[in-house]
Design brief:
Helix content of chain A: 40-55%
Number of helices of chain A: 15
Oligomer: heterodimer
Number of strands of chain B: 5
Strand order of the largest sheet of chain B: 1-2-3-4-5
Largest sheet of chain B: 5 strands, mixed
Structural class of chain B: alpha/beta
CATH superfamily of chain B: STAS domain
CATH topology of chain B: Transcription Regulator spoIIAA
Shape of chain B: globular
CATH topology of the domain at 429-656 in chain A: Phosphatase 2c, domain 1
Largest sheet of chain A: 6 strands, antiparallel
Radius of gyration of chain B: 12 Å
Distance between the termini of chain A: 85 Å
Shape of chain A: rod-shaped
Strand order of the largest sheet of chain A: 3-2-1-6-5-4
Order of helices and strands of chain B: EEHEHEHEH
Strand content of chain B: 25-35%
Number of helices of chain B: 4
CATH class of chain B: Alpha Beta
Largest interface: A-B, 27 and 20 residues
Chain lengths: 658, 111
């Protein structure tokens, strides 16, 4: 996150502190925290909602079931009382001889007068029961204009449901309710009970006693049931006909199955089936009236008539309180989220503000302004510690840079001194070629390439007199400044001794003595010394532990000069050196070198070796002196590739021209 | 450069492997310096595994030989490879530090 802030350049303008969280800490912090809190809140709220809803549904189910059963029981009580009247009358008719029409009418009128819920009653006899020539005999009394009227049913009633059904089943039957048009414009239902007579010992059915009951009171009772503001009750018959319903146009007109068909609502059909089967239950449904609002429906059967009472509980209304509570909870939740968001932004900004200042200071420091003001953060949290660390870092950077400046100065001083030393060392070597242009008997060329600024290799050449040319190549053990100092001493000693006119072995013996005199660090020098008589071509030479020079002679292989292996100089103070001589022919060359040539290494630490040197010399020996040395150096450099030069490289070629 | 020191009764054997040049010579010098703090007088350089020796390396042998001489001890080398032997021969140091073909021969010589 810190990186992100550093990359966002617009965030780092010093002094300015724009309210622009961008994709910085404030954004991430608020985004993820709010996301998590919303997730948690949604889970808790959802669980709480489900739980409260379930509790309410259970409560409503219990209450609805009780109310449905209670109401059904109340209706049953009234209907059961009504049922007693024709049942009792049927018993009376069985036992007493009521053939006399007048007495029968009197009894019926008396019963009717005492039972206000009964609208009318009939005693319908079997065909030809009263007389052989009288097929229909059925006295009927009913209420009319506040009084009681009587008549005889004149139509052929035997095929009517109120007569036929109890006659066939020989048991009391509630006939499907019907709307009595004309008589009272009310819904009525008829309860029919068969009665018998004893003929001898046989019991024989004599007719049917019926009572017509007005269902107005039942409709009123059911429609008075109010559930909340919009809940209601309804009653269906055993065939599903809507006996009472708030919508009077549906009453006695349609069955619950008709409604289900109209709306293609199979669940309502299932409910209808369960209700007409006499089951009790509680189901989720839609408004039975118009099929719209979701609601709960509780239903219970009437045990007397086999009808079913349904109670409709409008869901929206019953859940209104809970829904309001949930809306309030949601509102407070949202309000809390906004507060939380503000708090997060505030915290994030209080962290980011010093960070931005620090970033600006760091950028100034990165640009080289090490004296940039580190903002004072007087806090003891991580940001405060970061600011303190920044201040400490700046201090150590300043210290480090000042140290570095000093060290660099010191190093530059040493380097400059080494450079001067290098120049001095190189100036000690003869470097003008050809060195003796007036001499036609011989020529010489040499080069020295130190591995560091100064080295331990040396070469030298000079004429001892008109005829004797002295030349030497040497190598001090080790490299660098100690070797360079030793090299300078050796070179001066050698020239001094040589110019005294001593023979080669004595020169080496004297130089050796001086070097070995006080040499606790055992620095030693390998050296080859030769004196060439340029008039005769006679070469006298002596080696102090140095590789023998190669003799380049026309028409012959390149071979090293045979040598007496003398001890390196500075090791054994009284060592006795031996010399050898060789007669040089015209145009013979001597190639002198130090081990920097043969021990030049490539990147795999493979050495150049004598074989490669001999090969190179074979190819180059007829060229001029400078080309021979440059050719060998080129081959060494090609061989070494990227490997650094490990040792000083020195080469010298002397040609005898005769 | 790999240096291993073994002890065979009174004889110490320095087994050197790899390249002894200006870079690795100080390492050997320190190790030899430690050895000379002890009172030993018999030292063999086993050079069977030594690939290369430079003039800086030669100097270490030389200082060792000198120190050994002052305490009247014996120092020699064993198992020199041809190129290493050549370096010792050319520089003349082979006359200062005796060289033997095998370690056994070297041990017999200084015992």
């Amino acid at each position: 996150m810190v990186l992100n802030m550093f990359n966002d350049r617009r965030d780092t303008c010093p002094g300015g502190d724009p309210v622009r969280p961008g994709r910085g800490i404030a954004f991430r912090l608020s985004f993820w925290i709010l996301l998590s809190v919303i997730g948690i809140f949604t889970l808790v709220f959802g669980y709480y909602y489900m739980l409260s809803r379930d509790l309410i549904v259970k409560k409503i189910e219990k209450q609805a079931g009780e109310q449905a059963r209670g109401t059904a029981a109340r209706i049953d009580t009234v209907l059961a009382a009504t049922q007693k009247i024709p049942e009792n009358l049927s018993v009376v008719l069985s036992d007493l001889p009521f053939q006399e029409e007048k007495k029968l009418f009197g009894l019926m009128k008396a019963i009717l007068a005492r039972n206000p819920e009964i609208y009318g009653m009939a005693v319908a006899f079997e065909p030809y029961f009263r007389a052989r020539n009288v097929r229909h005999f059925s006295p009927y009394v009913y209420k009319e204009n506040g009084g009681i009227a009587s008549t005889r049913i004149a139509y052929d009633y035997f095929s009517w449901d109120w007569y036929r059904l109890p006659r066939e089943s020989l048991s009391p039957v509630w006939v499907e309710p019907y709307f009595d048009e004309g008589a009272g414009n009310i819904v009525m239902s008829t309860y029919s009970v068969p009665f018998y007579r004893s003929v001898g010992k046989r019991r024989e059915i004599s007719g049917i006693v019926t009572v017509d009951i007005s269902l107005a009171w039942l409709q009123k009772l059911v429609s008075d049931i109010r559930i909340g503001e919009t809940g209601y009750a309804f009653l269906i018959s055993q065939k599903g006909t809507l006996v009472t319903h708030p919508d009077t146009s549906l009453m006695m007109n349609q069955t619950i199955f008709d409604l289900a068909d109209e709306r293609s609502d199979s669940s309502l059909r299932d409910i209808g089936s369960r209700m007409t089967r006499g089951e009790a239950g509680f189901v989720e449904s839609r408004d039975v009236l118009d099929g719209g609002e979701p609601c709960w429906l509780a239903f219970a059967p009437l045990s007397t008539t086999g009808w079913s009472l349904g109670l409709v509980f409008p869901r929206g209304e019953l859940m209104a309180d809970v829904s309001r509570l949930h809306r309030l909870t949601l509102f407070f939740g949202a309000f809390g989220l906004v507060v939380l968001f503000c708090v997060i932004i505030w915290i994030a900004r209080s962290i980011i503000h010093p960070l931005r200042l620090l970033t600006a200071a760091t950028q100034t420091m990165a640009g080289g302004g090490l004296n940039a003001q580190i903002p004072a953060v007087r806090r003891h949290d991580e940001v405060g510690r970061l600011a303190a660390s920044f201040a400490a870092m700046r201090e150590s950077l300043q210290t480090y840079i000042s140290d570095l400046t000093e060290t660099t100065a010191a190093k530059e001083k040493i380097e400059s001194e080494l450079k001067i030393a290098h120049d001095i060392q190189m100036d000690m070597l003869p470097r003008t070629f050809p060195p003796f242009p007036q001499r036609e008997e011989m020529d010489v060329f040499a080069m020295l390439k130190p591995a560091r600024e100064v080295g331990g290799d040396l070469y030298d050449f000079f004429f001892l007199d008109d005829d004797h040319f002295c030349f030497t190549v040497g190598d001090v053990s080790g490299k660098g400044v100690p070797a360079a100092l030793h090299m300078a001493i050796t070179k001066i000693l050698l020239k001094t001794k040589a110019q005294q006119g001593l023979p080669t072995e004595t020169i080496l013996a004297r130089v050796n003595e001086d070097l070995a005199l006080d040499n606790p660090s055992m620095m030693f020098v390998t050296l080859f010394l030769g004196i060439l008589n340029v008039r005769t071509g006679e070469l006298t030479y002596c080696s102090a532990g140095h590789p023998s020079p190669y003799l380049l002679r026309a028409g012959e292989r390149v071979n090293p000069l045979p040598a007496e292996n003398g001890m390196a100089l500075g090791v054994v103070d009284d060592f006795v050196y031996r010399f050898r001589t060789e007669m040089l022919k015209k145009n013979d060359c001597l190639f002198l070198y130090t081990d920097g040539v043969t021990e030049a290494a490539d990147v795999h630490c493979e050495l150049f070796e004598e074989e490669r040197l001999v090969q190179a010399l074979m190819e180059l020996k007829d060229k001029d002196l400078k080309s021979i040395i440059e050719g060998v150096l080129e081959r060494i450099e090609d061989f070494a590739g990227n490997a650094p030069q490990a040792d000083d490289i020195t080469m010298m070629v002397v040609r005898y021209k005769g | 450069m790999d240096i291993e020191v073994t002890q065979d009764s009174e004889i110490s054997v320095f087994v050197l492997r790899g390249r002894l040049d200006a870079v690795s010579a100080p390492q050997l010098e320190d190790r030899i310096g430690l050895w000379f703090e002890q009172p030993g007088t018999r030292l063999i350089f086993n050079l069977e595994g030594l690939d290369y020796v430079s003039s800086a390396g030669l100097r270490v042998f030389l200082t060792s030989a000198k120190k050994m001489k002052t305490r009247d001890g014996k120092l020699c080398m064993a198992g020199l490879r041809p190129n290493v032997k050549e370096v010792f021969t050319i520089s003349g140091f082979i006359t200062l530090i005796p060289a033997y073909d095998t370690l056994g021969a070297a041990k017999d010589a200084i015992r």
